[in-house]
Design goal:
Length: 263
């Protein structure tokens, strides 16, 4: 039983190592990625104009949701901006190098959260696999790792003592249990990442299908910039670009990698 417990524990550790490797790869990709330089006459756009265009897009989508824009600057992913209780989409201010990027971010936020509010099945599944399931699975495997390490250290300290000899089976069962829970949690996390990365083109296509008629009709002056921003967003194949950031960060301090990428 002890051998089985040790094998499962090291399989769990290997899964954690894979998780850390994914984060390190994200750090590398994030560092190397440079937003396209959009040559245009509209490198800046006022908050008032963005707010007006955002409200027009809400009307275009025929929703009763309200827009609350630029009331704070802390980064919030597109998937966490819906205040369903107050029927409001809360979008932070994000200073970018082109009006095209800023509008793409705002329009994508409005489109996705409107879809979420309307109980769109794809939007609900996407958010659960991009945000909710990874969060809870990560919480699960970190807790499992903490307990597994405590058990491992305890068995090492108490090795060859009368207490451990009497309770060895219990320790082995606990080690197997926490290691299995942690391994399953890690694999679920990784599978969610694979899912959202695989279907990124689908969410981009659905968003563009909704956006194209609107920018042609209501946003002609920024149409070329938005199209350029769309080309940049589509060029990035990953959705989950989370690194090792723990503290909340101002959006303006981050590199924009497309509206649907989680940083």
């Amino acid at each position: 039983m002890t051998i089985i417990a040790n094998v499962i524990f090291w399989i769990f550790i290997a899964c954690i190592a894979l998780y850390i490797l994914i984060r390190l790869i994200n750090v590398s990709i994030y560092g190397k990625t440079q937003p396209f330089r959009i040559v245009d006459e509209h490198t800046t756009i006022s908050d008032v104009e963005i707010n007006d265009l955002g409200n027009k897009y809400l009307e275009h989508l025929k929703t009763d949701l309200k827009l609350e824009y630029a009331t704070h600057e802390e980064y919030v992913s597109v998937y966490d901006q819906l205040d369903e209780k107050n029927e409001t989409i809360v979008i932070p201010k994000w200073y970018m190098s082109s009006a095209g990027y800023e509008l793409d971010y705002v329009f994508a936020s409005i489109w996705f959260n409107t879809s979420l509010y309307n109980k769109n099945k794809f939007a609900k599944v996407w958010r659960s696999r991009a945000i909710l399931i990874p969060f809870y699975s990560a919480l699960t495997f970190w807790i499992a790792l903490a307990f597994s390490i405590v058990l491992k250290i305890t068995t090492m300290v108490l090795s060859n003592t009368a207490f451990l000899v009497g309770e060895q089976l219990l320790f082995d069962i606990l080690m197997i249990t926490f290691s299995l829970i942690g391994t399953i949690g890690t694999m679920i996390y990784i599978m969610c990442i694979i899912y959202v990365n695989t279907y990124k083109n689908l969410i981009e296509a659905q968003y563009e299908s909704s956006l194209s008629s609107f920018i042609t009709k209501e946003c002609k002056i920024y149409k070329d910039e938005i199209i350029a921003a769309r080309h940049y967003a589509i060029s990035i194949s990953k959705v989950d670009m989370r690194t090792f950031k723990i503290n909340k960060t101002k959006a303006g301090e981050l590199k924009f990698m497309g509206p649907f990428v989680i940083i």
